[in-house]
Amino acid sequence: MTISRRTFLIVGAVTAASVALPPFICARASAANAARPINAKVSIEVNGHQHALDLDTRTTLLDTLREQLHLTGTKKGCDHGQCGACTVIADGRRINSCLTLAVMHEGSKITTIEGLGTPQQLHPMQAAFIKHDGYQCGYCTPGQICSAVAVLGEIRDGIPSHASPSLTEPPKLIAREIQERMSGNICRCGAYSNIIEAISEVAEASA
Predict the structure, then answer these.
(1) pTM of this prediction?
(2) pLDDT tens digit at each of 207 positions of the chain
(3) Closest CA to 173 of 194, 144, 153, 145
(4) Using an 8 Å Cβ cutoff, are 56 and 69 in contact?
(5) 108 burial level (CB within 10 Å; 0-12, 13-18, 19+)
(6) Which end of the chain is more exposed for a tag (fewer CB within 10 A), N or C?
């Protein structure tokens, strides 16, 4: 039987489509399955209170604090770990809560700005920020204060920074050292000198 060129092209196109269609359908099905949320039970201690949460495994610690626990003192700034507004203290060390998933902190102890002090009983760092006017718009302040508290802990524990003159000797409580350690917390209002003064005062008082 003689097949015309037109018929040959039509049959070839249909055959190619039928062969390619199953993988295409499978790929779309796989993408749809990947988009389905997977929940996990997570137990986290936040500001001294234990919380048992059922969370989408993709939920960041920042969104968990703000949306699930309604602790809105921790701010969402850049959401890319570049501004430091979301800084909290996890097991004694400061972290950017926007860059970590809540499920990664099963059993952790998290401290947010709300857990450091209250209006009636301020943490020394909070009081120093007020005294030295270490804030203007205030948006970055919760992250600045949490970071500052953790910075003094790092220095006490002898953890060096890029500004430390020695990796073996304890870091010194000097402005250059504090500036380097606080460089991940951005203040768009430019209150940096006041922030350093506040941290320095608390450092000297606790030395």
Answers:
(1) 0.82
(2) 565 666 655 655 555 555 554 555 555 655 556 667 899 999 999 999 999 999 999 999 999 999 999 999 999 999 999 999 999 999 999 999 999 999 999 999 999 999 999 999 999 999 999 999 998 999 999 999 999 999 999 999 999 998 898 888 889 888 999 999 999 999 999 999 999 999 999 999 887
(3) 153
(4) no
(5) middle
(6) N
